[in-house]
Fold:
Amino acid sequence: QPPDLPTTALGGCPSGWIQFLNKCFQVQGQDPQSRVKWSEAQFSCEQQEAQLVTITNPLEQAFITASLPNVTFDLWIGLHASQKDFQWVEQEPLMYANWAPGEPSGPSPAPSGNKPTSCAVVLHSPSAHFTGRWDDRSCTEETHGFICQKGTDPSLSPSPAALPPAPGTELSYLNGTFRLLQKPLRWHDALLLCESRNASLAYVPDPYTQAFLTQAARGLRTPLWIGLAGEEGSRRYSWVSEEPLNYVGWQDGEPQQPGGCTYVDVDGAWHTTSCDTKLQGAVCGVSSGPPPPRRISYHGSCPQGLADSAWIPFREHCYSFHMELLLGHKEALQRCQRAGGAVLSILDEMENVFVWEHLQSYEGQSRGAWLGMNFNPKGGTLVWQDNTAVNYSNWGPPGLGPSMLSHNSCYWIQSNSGLWRPGA
Structure:
């Protein structure tokens, strides 16, 4: 189970330290002269009122791995063994471990004394699969870089990157930009939603991006679809963005599902399942170059632009979001009619998810958007503008009471939740 994120004020870190939740980290050793033996590394951290890093769960591990793309050397951490059992510098027991396969295998324990003989490093590895994993080395014979850690200072304010990535925001990492979707989605729905944002489902080229997405999945506490799918009836998987499959993060025994689709679980491992499974999230990857080839094609195309807002194709319709204009319901109807369209109607869950995803970008500007729906007193039913019945709905609590059903009533969809509300 992912650890609970601290609810207390986080505090911040001094200049030169990077923050994650309530810890500050500093990587040392860029200059080869500053690479030292383990006890010297611990002493150097103590001089800065810190100590060698303690990595207590996969979320911290993912943050540290994601911080290492420019590091070209191994790094001491605060894990050491003097007799036989490894323990952290704080005498904390070892509850979480991230050893490379076959490790620890190090020097035999000292016959007596309390000086550590075996100490752990985080690997910078030419083999991507071992990057960030731990290995044990001789504490007294080898010199390495190291990572210091200290608690945040309550008098400083937290850095923006101190928390795991949040849904609905653009996240930049290395050369890529990602967007987290936290909505109930089948794999093809997720791809459709990413493509409506000129993106595709995410491609994971290396262990650093993998660690970044692990933080996202763990922070949201939900598995996330990525852009890796099986060829029909086969266990051969390839990226939907047509990138080469250089790096993989499969759970042991995967890929299992022939012709299935891939998600990153909350521990970062990749799993396959049927593409029709509904997961609660996905990651879009926005490439820096031209948008990726669309996998999903539409009949026809959308008009070029409407005033200052482009049309976005989704399934068989085109949508134009005007969230900078605060209009009454009647004015909105007239404006859409002048543009040759109609105020929004939503006929199923996927269309609601698409609209909600795009409205989230405008949360700061507007609480929501009008629905082209009204109450027909003759039939006693809610109808869309073209008089078709409202069969799918997504009313927020407490639902719709009789007082909200009159021929003067109007209705809207909320930007931050995708729920429908009666309006004034």
Summary: The first strand starts at residue 18 and ends at 20. The CA atoms of residues 199 and 286 lie 5 Å apart. The mean pLDDT is 85.
